[in-house]
Amino acid sequence: MQLIEVSKEANLPTKFGDFKIQSFREKKRVGDEVYYLDHLVIKSEELPKIPLVRVHSECLTGDALQSLKCDCGGELEMALKKIAKEQGMVIYLRQEGRGIGLFNKVNAYALQDKGLDTVEANLELGFKEDERDYSVVKFIFEFYALKQIRLLTNNPKKIEIFKQMVGVEREPIIIQCNRHNAHYLEVKKEKMGHLL
To answer: Which residues make up the binding site for Zn(2+) (predicted)?
Structure first.
């Protein structure tokens, strides 16, 4: 069961520019358990015919705390800057830690501190390398009547998934690496096929 509720639209002035925001509350049932995920769309006031789109999964450590262990915060910042200039949207999905949640992500970090990479840590905890679900994105594309997008991504799996929903032209999003995330980026490239 998947039901989606849409909030009203509101203004969001930021250091990157002035945006509109709208939330999409996804109700999911897994077995007997019902839970909610509140996703956020941050968009330019007007959307061009082929908008620039970043589908960004939540990363509290990278997005809010500016962790140097990943490239997430840098990608989000770059996406907001580009969208303020070129018009489009960030679809911010509440899927922390590639879908394993914050608690498990911290446990994965602890395993990484002992030498495992991000993929090995997820597998060690009993998860797949990537547990994310993008089904809500189809609803969001349809809600905004998007037929064609310029997708800000380095992830070939995202390209394939979203090509089943809309026409996709890829735009790279390359962030400067540092000594803390160099191995992380290497794993994304070598094990997950990212276009880096």
So the answer is: 59, 70, 72
